[in-house]
């Protein structure tokens, strides 16, 4: 059988991933609820997503769902287990240019860096893209430098 995933989401109670798919042989729209067992607030989301994708019972259904999408769904479930709201979980997936990344823990920082890498790859111009210019030079406006008292003189050394 061949399955084409249309949508996926999470159910909090019991912790499950909900997959809406089309059976390409019968053209029928179906819903599959995949329970997430032995998943705690300390579990590794990427490992759990990988195990789910390789599961003998669910792997065929999740073939078209990307690993990163499954990881995001596991992060949402984990945030719910840690007491965070759905809005908070979804906000962590958006990049805020003014956010101080020094204040994040290692796990959250790795998530943000992964998002930045994906955003960079999506925006990057390749040689085959229309409008690609090799060795493009751009002049930026110069901003006035602020004077700092500690770099004014070297007489003290």
Could you explain how this protein is built, in words?
- The chain has a three-stranded antiparallel sheet, covered by helices on one side.
- It has two domains: 3-94, no CATH class; 97-127, no CATH class.
- The model has no long low-confidence stretch (mean pLDDT 87).
- Helix 1 packs across helix 2 (67-81).
- Helices cover 31% and strands 16% of the residues.
- The radius of gyration is 23 Å and the shape is flat.
- Strand 1 and strand 2 (16-23) form a beta hairpin.
- By secondary structure, the chain is of the alpha+beta class.
Element string (H = helix, E = strand): EEEHHHH
* Physical arrangement of strands within the biggest beta sheet: 1-2-3
**Spans of 5+ residues with little confidence (pLDDT < 50)?**
none
Major sheet: 3 strands, antiparallel
Q: Note the beta-strand portion.
A: 15-25%
Q: Outline, from the CA principal axes?
A: flat
Let me know the average pLDDT: 87
**Helix amount, in percent?**
25-40%
Q: Give Rg in angstroms.
A: 23 Å
Number of strands: 3
Report the total helices.
4
- Domain unit count: 2
Straight-line N-to-C gap: 77 Å
Structural class: alpha+beta
Protein name: Centrosomal protein of 19 kDa
GO cellular component, one term: centrosome
Pfam family, one: CEP19
Family: Belongs to the CEP19 family.
């Amino acid at each position: 059988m061949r399955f084409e995933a249309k949508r996926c989401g999470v159910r909090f109670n019991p912790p499950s991933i909900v997959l809406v798919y089309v059976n390409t042989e019968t053209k029928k729209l179906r819903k599959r609820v995949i329970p997430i067992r032995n998943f705690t607030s300390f579990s590794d989301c990427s490992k759990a997503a990988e195990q789910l994708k390789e599961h003998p019972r669910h792997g065929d259904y999740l073939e078209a769902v990307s690993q990163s999408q499954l990881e995001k769904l596991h992060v949402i479930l984990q945030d719910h287990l840690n007491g965070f709201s759905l809005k908070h979980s979804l906000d962590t997936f958006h990049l805020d240019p003014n956010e101080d990344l020094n204040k994040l823990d290692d796990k959250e920082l790795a998530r943000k860096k992964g998002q930045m890498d994906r955003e960079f790859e999506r925006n990057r111009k390749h040689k085959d893209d229309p409008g690609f210019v090799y060795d493009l030079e751009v002049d930026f406006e110069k901003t006035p430098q602020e004077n700092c008292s500690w770099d004014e003189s070297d007489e003290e050394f």
